[in-house]
Amino acid sequence: MKTVSPNVSAIQNKMPEGNNGLDESKIPLKRSLGLTTGILLVAGSLIGSGVFKKIAPMSAALMDKNYILLAWLLAGIISIFSAFSICGLASLTSESGGIYEYLRLSFGNFFSFLYGWGSFLIMGSGAIAAVAFIFSESVNYIIPLPVFFGSWQHISIGHFVFPFESSGIKLLAVLTIGGLTWLNILGAKKGGNLNNILTTLKIAGIVFLIVMGLSFTHSSSPIETIAKQQSHPNTNIFSAMIAAMLSAFWAYSGWFGISFITGEIKNPKKNVPISIIAGIGISIVLYLLLNDAFMNVMSLDALANIGENNIAALEVARIISGNPGATGIAILIIISTFGTLNAIIMVYPRMYYRMSQEKFFPKTFSFVHPRFNTPYMALIYSMAWSCLMVISGTFDVLTDMIIFTATFFFGLLGVALIKIKRNGTITTGLIAYPLSPIVLILSSLALIINTIITEPVQSVVGLLLILTGVPFYFFYRRKTTDDTSMPRF
User: Fewer beta carbons within 10 angstroms: which end of the chain, N or C?
Assistant: First the structure.
């Protein structure tokens, strides 16, 4: 479906490529991504590295196979009920921006701007930096990367930023972010096609590992005694289940990314909800089967003692088929993290593009390439800031600090759905209403309370980081003159 307006199209046809006379902020995006790409984009965003390693802390917390599978299932159900709320909000608009746009339409510009500000400053850029770093670490497992500036590794800025630490891994991460950004500038369809290939490969690899794990027997294995050790369930099962579910939620995060790219999805009001539900559904099935396979190969005692810095899937594969199996899983993790990285590089800049369209971000973020119809400047700015976060090495610390505020915005989406339903803005097409927004609100409250209790200092610092956007909000609000028809904080 071609969405370029006749006037813009005529201008582009008359002007030579690269002519600066065309206002690139007025060029519309092109709807080039279909339903299949949407589903695989959601699944690709979800299936990263978490599912390959979270069985270890979950085993340590619960020490019971049925409880572990229940934790994965409950986290998946809560995620899909939360997704139902997003699906309801998706019917509000066919524009890009996702959560930012839903908050803007429901509550005005204040909360939406703070969410977008936090995403660019930490959440989105930090996610790109973190996944790129994990990808590079996975490559380093197979092909040791050179260490540059080895004698400078301990140099720091304020004992917080260590720019020369893990220099080889950081360099590959930066180059990978740059390469994928360039590919996505060349066209949303190119980025979507790459995502389709990578997501298909990782799903196939996970299915193969599931089959191998579930069919594995210990009769001739030297670890037979260890594998058959009996585990003892945790006596404080409620707190243990919460801890295990928090690990599972990490593997389920990212499904909402497709909403950011709504402006390039064909028939978005129908395809975005279907993509979200189908993508999460695929992930739930794969996660349950894969963790069942892990526990068939290794005892819970062995899984619990793998260690925080080791990857459970590698140990499982090593037991099944030795070092070649571990190498195969390492390659699968490389493919998975590379695919996830491509997906989040693709989606987050569309939110900044939408913010700029609404005049709440610098105008250059809304520039669309006249040939490739992509928000290329938003992609470039996102790349630059994410690369700086990789080099600084602060992405893990910063993203941990804003879990509290990120969860608050998700809970606010549940409130938004109830609000727009009650005022009649949405009357049909809601799924599991009012249960879905209630689940989203209650789960967000539980996570907020847990974070405040367990990480009070990080919660306060994270909130202060997000609030640094307040003066910028008022700066852009004063400059904005044509948003009087929109709700305002």
Answer: N
pLDDT of residue 150: 67
What is the model's pLDDT at position 151?
67
- Nearest alpha carbon to residue 353 among 92, 120, 106, 86: 120
Reduced to 3 states (helix: H, G, I; strand: E, B; else coil), residue 447 is helix
Task: Report how far residue 350's alpha carbon sits from residue 345's, in angstroms, rounded to the nearest whole number.
Answer: 10
Cα R_g (the chain), whole angstroms: 23
pLDDT at 414: 92
Q: Report residue 33: phi and psi, to 5°.
A: -110, 125
Residue 229 burial (10 A CB sphere; 0-12, 13-18, 19+): exposed
How far, in Å, CA of 413 to CA of 410, rounded? 5
The identity of residue 426, as a single letter, is: I
Q: What angle do CA 417, 418, 419 make, to 5 degrees?
A: 90
406 contacts 99 by C-beta, under 8 angstroms: no
Please report, as a single letter, which amino acid is at residue 395. F
Q: What's the pLDDT at 441?
A: 92
So what's the pLDDT on residue 1? Answer: 39
Round to whole Å and give the CA distance between 53 and 317: 12
Parts of the chain with a pLDDT under 70: 1-21, 150-153, 155-164, 218-236, 307-309, 481-489
